[in-house]
Specification:
single chain, 291 residues, globular
Length: 291
């Protein structure tokens, strides 16, 4: 059973993309969700362009199927102008766009936009997603990991608490709400995310020795709400930590999650594939036309 990488940045590989995709296919990755944040709103179309190029390729049957999102990352929230939001709404209509994201809050870097600017961009993009009928892909970097300069700027504000409050107010509990990308929270944060209808996607940090609390959350999550991802080229799993990550390496995260949950690798692949297809049902129909 092929694996699905639910979050990777294919537009960051440049000329190496063909080799990255070939290695992913060889490793058993059947589907990739490419994240369309680009370097900011002006280039958030790049993941969709890649997804369409692969679908149109004559050798598409020998490559993973690629779908894409589009969104404005919280680090570029100051660029969420009316023009950029209109561009996002237009991208959301493209056939291979299955989600809006990654969007959310990030109080980790001192040079990130202010809390008010980040929150306004987040709310605006939730409105775009709701109008388009698309799930959202959530980025939330926990405040306790923030650098000292960021703590001084953002004070006692907690990104998780702010995020969950905004979701409850502006998104609400709904079926197929979206994905908590690279979920790195606690069991309580997992429970609250699940109550809003979100899936939890686990990345390479699940394999890190100090991630005991994350592994507890991964074991707690309901079977029908778990997904796996690489967040490549970032966050390579052990035994490749510190190297450039890529979709082929998702097998290590899959093995770690399977072991936590008492599943075989094939069982975990079957489960997460079913969960992905339930969240993004259009991918099933598109896949039949692609291959």
């Amino acid at each position: 059973m092929p694996l699905i990488d639910t979050h990777t940045h294919l537009d960051m590989y440049g000329d190496a993309l063909a080799q990255v995709l070939a290695r992913a296919h060889t490793a058993g990755v059947g589907t990739i969700l490419a994240i369309g944040i680009g370097d900011g709103p002006a280039t958030m179309h790049r993941a969709l362009d890649i997804a369409q190029d692969i679908a149109d390729a004559t050798n598409s049957a020998t490559l993973p199927a690629v779908y894409a999102s589009a969104g404005i990352h919280p680090q570029e929230a100051h660029q969420a102008t009316p023009e950029a939001l209109a561009q996002l709404a237009a991208l959301a209509t493209r056939p291979r766009c299955v989600a809006i994201g990654e969007i959310g809050l990030d109080y980790y870097h001192a040079d990130n936009p202010s809390i008010a600017v980040q929150q306004a961009a987040f709310i605006a993009q939730m409105q775009v997603a709701a109008a388009a009928g698309k799930p959202i892909l959530i980025h939330c970097r926990t405040s306790e990991l923030a650098k000292p300069e960021a703590r001084e700027k953002f004070g006692a504000a907690d990104a998780w608490e702010d995020l969950l409050a905004l979701l409850a107010e502006h998104w609400g509990a709904r079926g197929n709400a979206g994905i908590m990308h690279c979920f790195s929270g606690t069991v309580d944060q997992a429970r609250r995310s699940l109550s809003l209808g979100f899936h939890l996607s686990f990345a390479g940090n699940l394999t890190y020795p100090k991630a005991a609390a994350l592994r507890e959350a991964a074991a707690f999550a309901p079977a029908e709400r778990i997904l796996i991802e690489t967040d490549a080229p970032f966050l390579a799993p052990i035994p490749h930590r510190g190297q450039r990550n890529e979709p082929a390496l998702i097998v290590h995260t899959a093995q770690a999650l399977a072991q936590l949950r008492g599943l075989s690798l094939d069982g975990l692949a079957e489960l997460t594939t079913s969960n992905f297809q339930a969240l993004f049902p259009t991918t099933t129909s598109l896949l039949t036309t692609d291959h």
